[in-house]
Structures are given as C-alpha cells and as structure tokens.
Amino acid sequence: LIRIQNISATATLGVRIDLKRVALKCRNTEFNPRRFGAVIMRLREPRATALIFNSGKMCVTGVRSTHNAALAAKKFAYIIERVGFKPNDSIDFKVQNMIGTADVGFPIRLEGLVYAHSAFASYEPELFPGLIYRLVNPRVVLLIFVSGKVVITGGKKESDISSALTKLYPVLLEFKKVQVNAIPGSTAATAGESSKAASAAAAKDV
Predict the structure, then answer these.
(1) How does pLDDT run across 158-172, given as a tens digit for each residue?
(2) pLDDT in tens, 72-81
(3) Who's near 153: CB < 8 A, 6+ residues apart?
(4) How far does Cα 176 stand from its chain's mean position?
C-alpha cells in the first residue's frame, strides 16, 4: 500500500502582487521580506501552504492528492483576487513533485542490490542509511531501507509512484533477507566443543 505524503505544485497567477498588502489584509499569512521574499499563506481546508511571490508565481505544498492541490491553488487565487489582484482565468497549474511511502513487508539486502544494479543504484551507509535507486521510466527516485520501507519521490502523477514500486518489487523480492535459524541443539554442541578445546589447552599448559 502506497501512501502519498506530500505533493508540491506550482501555479502562475499572471499578475504582479503587492505582498505587503496581501499580508496585511489576509489571515493565516506570514511575511518577513528580510528573511524570505514571499508571503507564506496557509489554508485549513484542504490543509495546504502556499508561497506567493510578487511576480505572481505560487508554490503549493502540504497536500496529499492532486485534486486537493488543484483545489488549494484555486482557493489561494480567489483570496488574492479578493485583496485586489485579479489573476488570469488560466493559472497554469502543474504538479512538480510527489512523495509516496510504502512498506514491502520484508528486510532487504542492500549490499547485494547495489552490487547487482550499480548502473541505477548507489549506497553509502556512512553518509545515508538508505540505498538510492534511480528509475528511468517512470523518472523517479526510490530510497530503499534495510527494514523494507521505501520512499518514492520525483513523480508527477499518482500512477508514476505506483508503477515505480510495481516495477521494482520483483527486484526487492530477489534481495529479500533470509533469516538463518540455528539448528536445534547446535548451540549446545558448539558450547560443548569450545569447552573441550579450552580443557585441552589448559591441560597442555600444565
């Protein structure tokens, strides 16, 4: 089961905006021009955050579906219009990035996976605990962890995220970690052998 965690989208309102006026007239806004040159505006329904620039460009983030992203963009455009800056009829809405998570349900041998798929994968556990796998089609990046957790990023549609996991699942299954169970009685036998060896060594010393 894939869960969409975040969607980032952009829109172009097609009108220059006085950010100070927007910040003064709208609720749930932040504007600190010394720190960041955009108004941060938040919606409660759908839960979303927008960065609105004076050029009329807008970034919408924090939503979990493309429907909500488009709805939030329209609501932000309506709020801007109420302040006195009429956007274009078409706001050129585009999804730029989608982040999804999944759990394949079994641990994965990352060392074996990176060795067999070195053209697409990189794994440096000293720097980052996950393996980075770059798929060409769909063009997404997967972060794969030993636990079987997978983060998929870079998709522009929900279908990109699901087809990426469908493609890679057989590969992950191939590098599934197998738990090696000890043979019953083997621990005791090993302990007996080691004590015999220790006794023999002690006898030699005497």
Answers:
(1) 999 999 999 999 999
(2) 999 999 999 9
(3) 97, 98, 99, 100, 140, 141, 142, 143
(4) 22
